Amino acid sequence: MSLQLPPRLARWLLERAVPPDVREDVAGDLTELFHRDTSAEGSTRARARYWRHAISCAIRFGAERCRNALRAGLLRMPWSRPQLKAALSAFMGWRLDLTLAIRMLLRYPALSGVAVLGIAVAIALAATMVTIIGEQLNPSDPPLPEGGRIVALQRWDAAKHRVEPLTLEDMVAWREQLSQVRNVGAFRNVTRNLIVPPAVPEPVGIAEMSAAGFDVAGVAPLIGRALQPEDERASAAPVVVIGYAEWRRRFGASPDVLTRSVQLGDSHHAVVGVMPEGFAFPINHTYWIPLRREPAGESIGLTLPPVSVFGRLAPGATLQSAQEELTMVGDRTPSVVVRPESSQAVRTRLVPYARQFPEADDPGNRLAMQVVRFLVAVLLAVVSINIAVLVYARTAARQPEIAVRTALGASRGRIVTQLFGEGLVLAGLGSVAGIMAAVFALGQIHATFSQNELMPFWVRFDLSGQTIATIVAFTVAIAAVIGAWPAWRATDPRVQHRLQTLSAGGGAGMHLGRLWTLLILFQVAFAVALLPFVVVRMSELARDGMGRFGFEAREFLLAQVAMDRVPSGSVESSNLLAGRYRQMENRIREIGNIRATAFSSSAPGFESAALLRSDTGAMDASVRVNRVSPDFFQTWGVALLAGRDFRSADAAPDARTVIVNRAFARGAANGAAALGSHVRAVTSEAQAVSGLANDWYEIVGIVDDFPLPSSRTLEPEPKVYRAITSEAEAELTMTLRLYAGDGEPWGTRLRQLAAGIDPTLQVKNVVTMDELLRQQQRPARLLAGVLAAMTVSVLLLSAAGIYALMAFSVTQRRREIGIRLALGAGTRRILLTIFSRAAGQLLAGAAAGTAVAAILDRAGGGLMRGHAAIAISAVVALLIIVGLLAALRPARQGLRIAPTEALRGPTR
Amino acid sequence: MHSTALGEFEQIVLLAILQVGDEVYGVPVIEEIRRRTGRDVAPGAVHITLRRLERKGLVTSWLGEPTPERGGKARRYVMVTRAGIESLRAARRVIDQMWRGLAPGLRGIK
């Protein structure tokens, strides 16, 4: 049984807070307590308790560290008594400012809360986006000695923007001919069943790698030896090098591991070395076996998976000189594998190792990321403006207090320092919360991506020192803008003088002039222009992220089954595969209480799409294709609407029959009677994806749509089903339909059962349909949450900005309002006067924003998917309501002004 | 032997180690204190105390084997040293001295 892990962020906190000498035992104890709590009280309570323990440990060990540092520092420093006194008084002065700042924050909890939240959301979003974009555009070098000099050698199709497959022959040719690149080697990813009794057999990802890989990485084994060229010989005894984590997990970190062997599939490999902690070259591996030259003919063609080639720049060589040499050599040695659909623009290329994935160089991706960067900068600007308005208005309202303090002898510098301190506390709190949220979000994103075992080990998504420094600078800048600058203005001697002479007026000195009005207007316009897109995307994501099946998805258990080596299409090997799968099905029926079983090439709802053409005259369409066993529809309880179900004859390789779903019959067949019509895969790529031959296939049946939520929309998608042919698939998804309440540990049982039939038969990713959907929906939920936080913070900030403006405006006009009330002006008229400013700004901003949103929607080809009018109206209505509600309190305050009080003198 | 003055929690932790007996590490100590005192003790407090006691030479520790239920982390076993026992005795003597001579009725003081 796999144990659940404690919360990731809490573990991260613990890792950093607890001193290294006790980290292992503290983390171990907390994990042990977490598992006990999980089995006794459930996961939610256990997670909450783990969090409490982690925070408590962080505080206690942090305090201990501070105490020790302080004690050591005080002892070491040659303090004289006056120096100590001066330092103490400076510290006490700052402490006083800090106390005052905290008191001020607590005095205006709503304002402080909104400002902190705004800063936190902006910082979190900016830090997260900048980190992810930075990692995409400029991936960090692998954390290996001179990691920047490790290179990947590729054949690159510039027209199709993709990497072409390479074979061992390419690697050997390059190794022999290149002088600018040393240690040229190759690897391929393979999966084998790891069998170490008494543990349950488990498929593990392995790097089948040239011995040169360890020289390229430049890391020596922790114990034993690395792979050597002799291990690559066909006659050599099988060996394996294992990673640090696996050594600890499976072998209890025992040095005797070098005397043991592990069974990988059907062969036993002697363990010859253990790599140090953190080593995962070439991608994210923990097992390494030698990459052997296959018997002649085997590696020619695509019967074996392609390899990736790497090397290290020779001393003195540069990327450019190595590229020139590779181009020359590459032109002399054309590839042995040419995909039929490859363009003529295939060239050899050499890239830094971390940049080997084409996504980083895609011009579209780069542009999109620059746009995101720009939006993040605009968001930060909007947040800063709003918070500046908020705090400026508050400082203006505190002018009488500042004047009194000045009169009592407080210097200008003292007051500016104090208000700067207040700004710093406010911005600091927001920044800390923002950093924590960013670390959490990045952890979640990393966890989501790391489910893919091919996530490169050098991609960390950690906040860089530069990002943290930028946040600190941003915090100080915000503190200066929201604290020091208003304070400087408020303590201007001329303002002070006017304040004294105009003692009857309130807040006479500082103004929220035209600039501020423009800023608020801009911010409302920005919100109206941006939020409709965000709201439409958010609702789509929320729908996708929360969507559920219309049936009891927990009753369907899915498992991927595969065999170690894909047989090369001979009848014997096909029969072997088919026989193994059938054998497994029979054993499952023997040992468990199962309602039904079926096989398919993909889990329902997760099929690949291929471009198909229909002979009814409909346009070519992208259709999801699944290859299924004859009992598939019965197992899933999908009704046959017309025609017939698959028969055993449909599984013959030359059978040309398919079944389509209702959505296909309705749409892709162009309204004509789908039954009896034909479909075919249009391109060779579509044929490869769909598994359909280059021929027409007759539609012999129509089945109901699966009630499955898909990635973009809840509308059922058109689908085509083909019977699995006797040329069995290399990897299949097995469906087990369970009885309700089945509590069997099926993951363990299936793996044991498969390894019992054949050690090369792998069982991976055993999940219920329900869990599979949740995993798939995780990114959508995460993104929807981020967008919701952004929307709420923009709305809150807008409301707060308008509130601050209104409140300030009412304060300034108290006397005027009082006099008008005394002269008999009606409540309605006064309210109208108060609201008119807010309403004017809101409407002007909303009009400008609406125009921008409409233009953007049209320019983007309907980015709001036809919901532009509704989305824009909803956002405008919401902003106006929020804005008017924000203006309500100041308006009511205005009405409460007693004429006598207004005429008498200054206000609070 | 010179004994080190002990705080209340230090005494509790030392006594819990002695009560558990064999194979003592963080978790059994935490649970023993919880069981006997009814206090929901923070693991961080126990670990900091164990570390301090080790620095004072009152307990000694060594690392065991990593186990899967601990996320592959090893246990740190602890044992009270002779100096630790001596300090506990001294602390007990001080408390006993302070109780001595009080009227029997005061024994029920809470």
Provide mean pLDDT of chain B, rounded.
86
Q: How is the largest sheet of chain A built, in terms of strand order? A: 3-4-9-6-8-7
How much is the radius of gyration of chain B in Å?
Answer: 16 Å
What can be said about the biggest beta sheet of chain A?
6 strands, mixed, barrel
For the termini of chain B, the CA-CA separation is: 34 Å
Portion of residues in beta strands of chain A equals 15-25%
Question: What profile does the largest beta sheet of chain B have?
Answer: 2 strands, antiparallel
Structural class of chain B: alpha+beta
Task: Report the end-to-end length of chain A measured between terminal Cα atoms.
Answer: 67 Å
Which spans of chain B have pLDDT < 50 for at least 5 consecutive residues? none
DSSP strand (E) fraction of chain B?
15-25%
Mean pLDDT level of chain A: 79
Instruction: Name the helicity range of chain A.
Output: 40-55%
Q: What is the total tally of β strands of chain A?
A: 22
Helix content of chain B: 40-55%
Q: How many H/I helices of chain A?
A: 25
Low-confidence stretches of chain A: 296-302, 502-508
Instruction: Supply Rg of chain A.
Output: 34 Å
Shape of chain A: globular
Task: Describe this protein's structure.
About 2% of the residues of chain A have low confidence. Chain A contains 25 helices and 22 strands. Chain A is α+β, with helices and mostly antiparallel strands and 908 residues long. Chain A starts with 7 loop residues before the first helix and ends with a helix. In chain A, helix 5 packs across helix 12 and helix 15 packs across helix 23. With 110 residues, chain B is an alpha+beta fold. Chain B has four helices and two strands. Chain B is elongated and about 55 Å long. Chains A and B meet through helix 2, helix 3 and helix 8 of A and helix 2, helix 3, strand 1 and strand 2 of B.
